[in-house]
Design a protein that fits this description.
4-stranded antiparallel beta sheet, 2 domains, 10 strands, alpha+beta, globular
């Protein structure tokens, strides 16, 4: 089917995707305070303390995601016959469908708070009971499941920001329904149409525009070559097919795209393993989270700082929080654990820089408990580490007191990540593959032995990241590491094994 093109209002030159054209509606939304705020929210939080050029803003990531989403939906529509289009999209204009998908992708991260994921828990605590209930319904959650706060904030801003609403209604040529934009992002919401549910995987799926952009962009910015992937090969093979016997339309990938999809998942694994899951990146992110919580608890940052209504005003971003940090008296013991945000010489020291270091730590605990030094009981030992860590966090007992041979106190930084950043066998990780008129659903690990190896490797991610900071210490991190790392490690082995026996 022929997809009409129109002259853009303007063009952004991007180092990752080249020239990114913007429609009048997109250009105007980029100017509003809630979106301009994203210039000052870094995608990877404090990771720039480890990878100095990891300073990508949510603004450019959202624009890049929009661009890729537009290419994806355009590629799909170009292969679609008019009868299929009519059955799926009804009377919606082609330009409208493309515009809705692009706007949804552009606005998908507008709800992120300062330091991105580090402020997630604090943001959640600012929600009213009615908002929390609304979020539970939006994501179809039950019980004590934690809501993805930044996603809910995105939903609220899209639907409550009066300036965005006015722009959508006053668009030249086309007016956009914010409910359609929202339901592309949140397909479980009330009133979502079948076509918005069908295109949802373009912005949130196993192979989506969000992942395409952050892998390419973070690889470019950090210098890590793992994220270089051939997204055009995948985009060219995209289609929407009718699946029988459910009689539902679904996004599918041409069988010739499998090599590039395999490369993408391999790249994603390595970026998580060596960049996002770098031991020091995880610890500085946790340090930022603790700092935000501490400053909120003592009233230096008001709780409303983390509420979506402040985001609508263009407030609450990284530099605002860092400005508050910089005014703290770092000679005081309670402020010292966060000094590294301002002074890099005081960053945490990781106890396990390599996977081998972590396995040796697990073996030491296993031996103390009475299991021996092999890794047969690794899962059991890791559960004990997590149980101990939970008790430390609940009691806020992150300090190791000074000893006769050590004149300073030690502050522990503990981060307990999920076993892996994604579940290999989740329903959404099944993909539809087509060749000619044949289409079939395949679980990703069934695609090739290499996919199986990638999925197995995901399960090897360690769940615990432990680090420490000497308080009132003089000198540089290298001196602290030499003086204290062995002692701290041995102390934690004793403490965790004793906790496991209790």
């Amino acid at each position: 089917m022929e997809v009409p093109t129109s002259l853009p209002r303007t063009t952004i030159v991007d180092p990752v995707h080249g020239h990114i054209p913007l429609t009048d509606t997109e250009y105007r939304i980029l100017q509003v305070p809630s979106f301009m705020r994203l210039h000052r929210v870094k995608v990877n939080g404090l990771a720039y303390l480890v990878f100095p050029n990891a300073v990508t803003s949510r603004f450019v990531h959202c624009v890049g995601t929009m661009h890729v989403a537009g290419k994806m939906i355009t590629s799909i529509l170009q292969k679609m016959d008019r009868n299929t289009y009519k059955n799926l999209f009804g009377d919606e204009k082609v330009e409208y469908v493309i515009g809705v998908v692009r706007l949804a992708a552009m606005l998908h991260d507008i709800g992120h708070g300062p330091f991105s994921h580090a402020s997630e828990n604090i943001m959640r605590k600012t929600l009213k009971k009615s908002e929390n209930e609304e979020a539970m319904r939006l994501f179809s959650l039950t019980g004590n499941t934690l809501i993805p706060t930044h996603e809910y904030y995105s939903y609220k801003i899209i639907n409550e920001d009066g300036e965005i609403d006015s722009i959508l209604k006053e668009s030249k040529g086309l007016q956009f329904n914010k409910k359609d934009i929202s339901s592309v992002l949140f397909p479980r919401m009330e009133g979502a149409t079948s076509w918005t549910k069908t295109v949802h995987p373009i912005v949130s799926g196993y192979v989506d525009s969000d992942r395409f952009d952050y892998l390419l962009r973070d690889s470019y910015m950090t210098g890590a070559v793992y994220g270089n992937i051939d997204i055009q090969r995948i985009i060219d093979g995209l289609s929407i097919k009718l699946v029988k016997p459910t009689n539902e339309y679904t996004i599918s990938f041409h069988i010739k795209s499998l090599g590039s999809i395999e490369d993408m998942q391999d790249s994603r694994l390595k970026m998580y393993k060596w960049v996002y899951g770098h031991s020091l990146v995880v610890l500085v992110d946790k340090m930022g989270e603790e700092a935000l919580k501490k400053l909120t608890d003592v009233g230096k940052l008001p709780s409303k700082f983390f509420n979506w209504k402040e985001f609508v005003k263009g407030k609450s971003y990284d530099d605002e929080a860092i400005g508050v940090f910089s005014k703290q008296d770092f000679s005081r013991k309670e402020s010292q654990p966060f000094r590294g945000i301002i002074d890099r010489r005081y960053l945490p020291i990781s106890l396990f820089k390599r996977p081998y270091d972590y396995d040796e730590f697990v073996k030491d605990i296993s031996e103390k408990i009475g299991f021996g030094r092999d890794l047969s009981y690794k899962d059991t030992v890791e559960k004990e580490i997590s149980r101990w860590g939970k008790s430390v966090e609940e009691q806020e007992s992150n300090s190791i007191p000074r000893k006769a041979n050590r004149s300073i106190d030690i502050h522990l930084i503990l981060s307990f990540q999920p076993r892996s950043p994604y579940t290999p066998k989740a329903k959404e990780d099944n993909i539809w593959i087509y060749s000619g008129n044949e289409i079939k659903e395949i679980m990703t690990e069934g695609l090739s032995s290499y996919f199986q190896a990638i999925n197995k490797e995901w399960t090897q991610f360690r769940p615990a990241y432990l680090g420490f900071l000497p308080l009132n210490a003089k000198g540089y991190r290298s001196e602290w590491k030499a003086n204290y790392i062995k002692e701290i490690r041995e102390s934690l082995v004793e403490e965790i094994s004793s906790h496991a026996k209790s």
